[in-house]
Design a protein that fits this description.
With about 850 residues, this protein is α/β, with parallel strands linked by helices.
Amino acid sequence: MAKLEDITVGSHLTGIAGNEPVNVVAVQWYGTNVIEITYKNSKGVPGTQLLYRADEESIQVKDSHLPWSFDADGDQVRLASEAYRIGLAHLFDPYLAVHTSSVEPLPHQISAVYQDMLPRLPLRFVLADDPGAGKTIMTGLFIKEMIARGSLKRCLIVSPGSLVEQWQDELFQKFHLHFDILTNDRIESAATGNVFNEVDLCICRLDKLARNDAIQEKLKISEWDLIVCDEAHKMSATIWGGEIKYTRRFSLGRLLSNITKNFLLLTATPHNGKEDDFHLFLSLIDPDRFEGTHGKDCMPQFMKSKAIPILYGGIESYLLALYGLSIPTACRSKHQETKYAPIIGLLGASVELVIKACLVQAKGIQAMYKEGDIQSDVYKFGTEVLKEFKAGISKGSPEFDFIWKDKNTNAEQKANLLSYVNKFTILQTLRANGLHAGQGCSRDITVTTANDIYQFFSLLSQGKKLKAYLKNIPAPESTVRDREVIIEDLSRRIAVSKSDEDKVGYLRNMYLIMPYIPDDKPEWVALLEKLTIIPPTKNDVSYLVETLENAHSIYLLKNRGGKEGLPVRIAPNDPNALPIDIQNIKRTLTGIPAEFNQDVLSANTRFEQNRLDLPIDDFLLDLFALGVNKAGILQNAQFFTAQQIWPFVVSAFSTQGTPRPCMELIKYCNEYDKLISYLKRANKIGNGYFKRRCSSVIKCVEALRDNTIPDLHKEKDKAFVDSYDYIAREDNTRKTFTSAYFRKYPISDELAPIIASYMSEELTAGSAIEQALKMKVLINNDRKAIRQLMQGCFVYSNRNGLVAVLRSDLMTGMHSVARKQMFALDLCHYLSLKPL
């Protein structure tokens, strides 16, 4: 127990944000019985909270010198460790799903799942076998194994209507997996309006989806880890008279293929004897490879037969390098970098082989050999291959048109490819050092290089011919350290090194991981090539350092988003500062108190006539965004009366879908028993939504009255139960925004400086969302980044970002998620809910 007077700047408190200790950074007194504290949790996420005398019993001041202790519940620690151990069970039992299911699979079923399906993640697969061969068992084993490995949370099974109950029974009885069947009642009762975002394991009837456009519109905005289609041959299309006859089922198959990572088609009759129809069916699995290939040709041939083995050799070298990164070190060594010598060699080989495949595709098999002489059996060096490739794409040679997504607008793709080719010229030297001399790089540099190669392959995969081969290549792990930190470390090594040869080695590493380098006549490339043959001079080293410093400045400038940066002013201790941009408030600040009083008068007048005339829920959103004090509705009083706030509480819980936040209004009421009486009266004349939630609302009011924490795990309305899931989540947004993330999902130049300011903690997640939604246009990856930022809005002070999402037409697909998160945030903040 701690008194309010004991809480000062620098104090470490528990009881504010669960059991996690927080550091107080500002304290503001209101009278003698209330203080407002601003704090940061262990992850640096800021927050604010009002504390009253009644809160003293639940708050403790911890010794700032002891951020950890051994006073946790031993049973809880054991439970957590057991859960973690069970979560790793699949690493020790490669057939975990077999041993934890009520089935005895046959050899061909085990072979299909563990030898053909699991190694192919992400899976795009047709499982074709005779009727009765156990396709359901194979699917169940695959699903359970994916769940055990943490690769599957959301799974949708689509089957003919007569088989959905059979699927549900089989999966439950044999694999202990509970799937919900999508029914009309389940669709209509969806709290968010979209049942596909509420159910993680679901079975749907094929024709219910294929024939209902409204359901398909909801399905389009959902995402799944795995979709399974039983009797998949029913989703085929046909070719008649040279014209493709598309069916509604086939269109559904295309939609399903686009919204899932893993797509599994089950059928006993995949081929009807017509090659063209078979290609159309396979286009559901891989449209890039099979769509548009009907005709006399049997199978599509995107690359020349001579180029394909070379291309696959490069891909396999890349995959072996990724495997090598995860293999433990054989023994302790003073030279840890030698472990990564063969890995950097494999990465260099992968680049050479993939580019060599492109040359063979463009110029023929002779492009691999010295002087084009196939009979000599003398291959070109890697640097020669890169040089020829660079020349071809620089000049825009027509034979390289297969690389471009659009040969008429390929300037950006070409510039990025040339930048990587320059860097990979250095990689060829490091490859030779790694394979022939055992000289490697640090792990950070190796992983960064692997990420650059992945990005290079992604650029190549924009071309239609290469896309089928390169689009599903896995990304490497994220680097432990940022490029900036690695570069600074190498700079220090150069500064203390006395050997020019060592300095050149460090410079090669720096050039290799530098994201932005001079692309106008890069003389440093030729110089580094020359220094592999002759010893370096001090002038050579000085020139390379100077060139790199210029590139370093460009890198830093681009990271900041421009010379001026982002004009942001943070005022956490300013009581007059608004938590939300004014354009997201739909009413003038001066008009809010008047509207509040008018709503109170209208509601109470009609209430005496046994009628409900409630405030609009849009007004509740403004009150939630501003807060009671800044909205000016409390005026000169310290507390609300029950007569003032009951209309807003009833309105908040009378809405369709997720209730609206209103706990702050209840917190400021000092007539809890009267408020409960009003709510019971409203329950008699309220709508069905409020009647279903009334008992839960009263439970919340009683908890605030008694200063206790209510148990809402078994409430009738799912919104209360789901709130615990939001509370249990952690803010990993800054960890999510890695360099690998942005390589996979490149964002627009307008959004980049906003994300940069968020990563440097100049902006909170909520403020970053507000800034982002001022943009006129958002690309898909921008929306994905904003969805990630929403994960960081689990602190009450970040509610402004959720309100901004609701007010924006650019994020309509996330409105229901924002409402659920706001409701959970409101309950968590004022009721101190805790996850199980």
